[in-house]
Specification:
The protein is α/β, with parallel strands linked by helices. About 35% of the residues lie in helices and about 15% in strands. Bound molecules: N-[3-({4-[(3-aminopropyl)amino]butyl}amino)propyl]acetamide and zinc ion.
Length: about 325
């Protein structure tokens, strides 16, 4: 399988993330890609598709914020990564504020996604990597792998969070639509619900979103991914959420996958984007499913059996010692 990767994605190297009342070492760090690169086929660098595909998904004000946030943070006299510390509660009236601390709160939904000096550069090249893999598949490849980091499925049109800053999978989907495909399906198999991807396409019928993830009553991102979220307006019925309890192993996961694949098939997409997270792995440090390395090949084979042109976009997966094998095992299923 063709694999795409750009070394500029290493530029995002957060010094830490804040949860449970303390700063912890960042789970999403550049060492993840060393583990993956040592296990997958040789990679190709993407060409530069520019800002246009990004602006089909993200608002111009959000993109401008992300591009300049760390400079503004430094101009305010701060060292290290930019973190939000105050958030507008849902339903507050919109205000046009310019103070960096207000902007960080306005455009973030958590405290685990700091902005460092290289966050924009890395996120930009993660997007280009996803676009290059998508172009390869639109050009006739059966499947392609986009080794993207930072990941993308938690960020929305105008917000970041969950280690995600630009929505690699959503931008790839919009690129396919903009270049003539009529229907795209996104299958999200990361441990966490892809709240950002869901939000971006929630009211649309042309990009269907299905996710298998940890029950949001117990797990991040809590406020999205409940089974009764099925889409709105024209998108009613084009979102499928299959939450599973902590402790789920391959037997429970496989049953949900059957349901998700039938649903994807019923939407008759021209292109499938798989948001692949290896954080469903039994020894993932921040997650609580019980999948084994040997489960990822059969999982991928079942997805591949749909017979759809498929782009695999990397999302989470934090057990670095097993990450190479978990990614390579998945890709080998295609
Ligand atoms: C892309 C992706 O997988 N993002 C996940 C972001 C999850 N951040 C939540 C951090 C809180 C983790 N709680 C860990 C408990 C460890 N004992
Ligand atoms: Zn995840």
């Amino acid at each position: 399988m063709k694999c795409f990767w750009d070394d500029r994605q290493r530029a995002h190297a957060p010094g830490g993330e804040f949860f449970n009342g303390a700063l912890h070492p960042a789970a999403e760090h550049p060492g993840r890609v060393d583990a993956i690169l040592s296990a997958v086929d040789p990679t190709e660098a993407p060409s530069d598709f520019g800002l246009e595909p990004i602006l089909r998904v993200h608002s111009a004000d959000y993109v401008e914020f992300l591009r300049t946030a760390h400079d503004q943070w430094r101009d305010a006299g701060r060292d290290g990564d930019a973190f939000p510390y105050t958030f507008p509660v849902v339903g507050r009236r919109p205000l046009k504020l310019s103070r960096i601390d207000a902007l960080l709160g306005q455009y973030s939904f958590d405290t685990s996604s700091p902005i460092g000096p290289g966050t924009w550069e890395a996120s930009y090249w993660a997007v280009q990597t996803a676009l290059a893999a998508t172009d390869a598949v639109l050009g006739g490849e059966r499947s392609a792998f986009a080794l993207c980091r930072p990941p993308g499925h938690h960020c929305g049109k105008d917000y970041l969070g969950g280690y995600s800053y630009l929505s690699n999978a959503a931008i790839a989907s919009e690129h396919a639509i903009a270049t003539g495909r009529t229907r795209v399906a996104i299958l999200d198999v990361d441990y966490h619900h892809g709240n950002g991807t869901q939000d971006i396409f929630y009211d649309r019928a042309d990009v269907a979103y299905a996710s298998i993830h940890a029950e949001p009553g117990t797990d991040y991102p809590f406020f999205w991914g409940h089974a009764d979220e099925t889409g709105s307006d024209e998108g009613e019925g084009a979102t499928l959420n299959l939450p599973l309890p902590r402790g789920t192993d391959w037997s429970g996961y496989g049953a949900a996958l059957t349901q998700a694949l039938d649903w994807v098939e019923s939407h008759q997409p021209d292109l499938l984007i798989v948001s692949y997270g290896a954080d469903t792995y039994e020894r993932d440090p921040i997650s609580r499913f019980e999948l084994k390395t040997s489960d990822y090949t059969p999982m991928a084979r079942r997805i591949a059996a749909l017979g759809l042109p498929t782009v695999v976009v990397m999302e989470g997966g934090y057990a670095v010692e097993a990450l190479g094998a978990n990614v390579a095992g998945f890709l080998s299923g295609f």
